[in-house]
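Hello again,

I reread your note about wanting to compare the complex against the isolated chains. To keep things tidy I'm splitting this into two emails, and this first one only covers the full assembly. Below are the input lines as submitted, including protein chains and any nucleic acid or small-molecule components. They are followed by the predicted structure of everything together. The single-chain runs will come separately.
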Amino acid sequence: MMSTLGFLLAISFVVSLVALGVLIWAIVNKQISAGKKEASLIFLDGEAGTMDDPSSASAQAVQDAHRFDVERAGIDKPGARVVLVLSTVSIFFLIVGSIFGVIASLKLHMPDWLAEYAFTTFGRARTIHLNFVAYGWLSVAGIGVALWILPRIFRTPLRRPKMAYMGGALWALGVLCGGIAVGSGWSDGLEWLEFPWQIDVILALGGAMMAWSAVETAMHRDVHHIYVSGWYYLAGLIWFPILFFIANIPGLHLGVQQATMNWWFAHNVLGLWLTPLGVGTAYYLIPKIIGKPIYSYSVSLLGFWGLALFYSQVGIHHLIGGPVPTWVVTLSVVHSVMMFIPVIAVAVNQHVTVAQNMWAFKQSMALRFVWTGALMYTAASFQGSIEAVRSVNSITHFTHYTVGHAHLGAYAFVSVVLFGAFYYMMPHLTGKRWPWPKLISLHYWLTVVGFAIYFLTLTVGGFFQGMELLDPDVAFADITRNILPYLEGRSLGGTMMTLGHIILGIHFFALLLAKRPAEGSKV
Amino acid sequence: MNKITPLLLGAAGILLFATLMLVILPGWQMRTADAPPALEPYTVQQLSGREQYIANGCVYCHSQQPRATGQTFADLARGWGRASTSGDYAYDSPHLLGTMRTGPDLLNVGARLPSRDWHLTHLYQPRAIFDWSIMPSYPYMFEVKDKAGTDDVVVKLPEAYAPAEGKVVVARQEALDLVAYLLSLQRTYPVSESEAGMRDRGFDAVIDSGKQ
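Full-complex prediction:
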């Protein structure tokens, strides 16, 4: 049987490589056209060549850049309400979710604080944090931004906005109920799948309604070509329901088999759901803000299909050295390393585009967030590929190093891209400018400094923790004592990040409440 | 790319292929194994305790998967047990393998720390036993009473952590259940070669390569 399985492993790898080869052949032989013309689809006539960022530019520059607002506004308008509601909901979950994160972090070095309340015991606070930020913040904000960008790249208004609206409400209700369930001790017990499956039904229904709206908009598009952001969004909206459905079938999974399913699901939530939302958003906003198409559009095809082929099979690197068959672990390790290909493809496109236009990076706060996030995507993916190699994983597995890595991906990449998207999108959506642009800068620096502290303490502390865990001569008591200062450092960084979120929240509501400016100074 | 249908079908097809490789095939391979004869199914009380373990999120700090000696001798040396195999989890639903070792691995905690009283004290206040521990205390699983009833299990506590004025701390049912589950965590029986062959041996190969 072992030889059969070795054969399967080889097959899986060869299939992925052949698929990529076919793709490259198709691009080179112009079977698929993906060039400057397609890449420039995000611009309306005359828009290319001017910077577009209402969060930072002067009022005059904004006005000049928006000679075509009538057409844009017509496309944006039908979806404006649902996007606005999703944004509001996501910011609520961001703030509540990060407060639970700080509580959990503090408890790791103040274990008797709030100990009498079951709702906030470490195991529950941490879980509410993860689920609120993953499903309440990243997913809702990501869907909101996607439902705003998709009509723009398809040049047609959002279809079935009411259905998306209802779907968003159901989803938010599901996340809230799930959080309360976890806090009350009702959990399915699997990481990333803690919400009871009975509540997941509500989420699934809500998600399907929002996806329907997006797909129907795509079917009615007024352009021939689907811009790269659209591939990521549409694929993500297909991938997540499949993952969520298979993972939640009650009674199907058991024992170690359930563990492989668990990590197939959990890593694909990152790779095939949150990553497409982040990468898709960056692919739209970077060239749109700068006013120039991305560097090498055809390479983005390689990035997309490479992500699909390789990322989908990396999950079992969470079980390296565990009670699962060697071949499936090796399969995931190999695919994790292969992730270098799609990540470099995305990096070439996004980073070169910005690097050739550094003036825009200096001027635009929205671009500053988005590009920082895009850079962190490259960093998180490189780190992840290396972390999956057995010799490295031996040290980092089971330690806080992994927590640092998870936040590099989910926070420094996806969250930060979405922050940038909010700063860019809200003025377009509301027709109002951010009341205090300096707060955007403050939020940026709180994010950068707070995250740097967070990441460095966990990475260094986690590395030492891992080395000590492998050393039979180090007492467990000493491992715990040694990690303590790093855990305190993490609380400091996390608190700064949370402070940034509260500033974003205040600014966001101030923008909503602000009076619309008089005609003439219109955004 | 200009068409929706091939995009969506291609994306879905790739994910289903990954599902085949990561979920269906390993599941099919591991389900050929029966539960080891020496492994007892959980009792009703142990299962209730397992629910407590899940509800309070113990899994986020405690793994249940000792590593093989090919990777490190530390797990065995710390008393965490031999490398686990899929059969060891035959009765586990949901699985609780865990990915974190802020605390020690618990797959053999029942063999390593077999005292119920020790666990009750440790759950009520870990720092009553280890001053360096950062494990949460779980006072809500216990009750402070003036006087213990006939069926009550009293928690033994050092003076510094005992309640004032001669009161006693007794365990609630959830604490007793949780301890029953912890004590059931013993995977000390030997495993067959075919069982061991079904776990990740990627680290063993480095050592064994000379023989092959």
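For quick reference: Chain A has a mean pLDDT of 91.

B.
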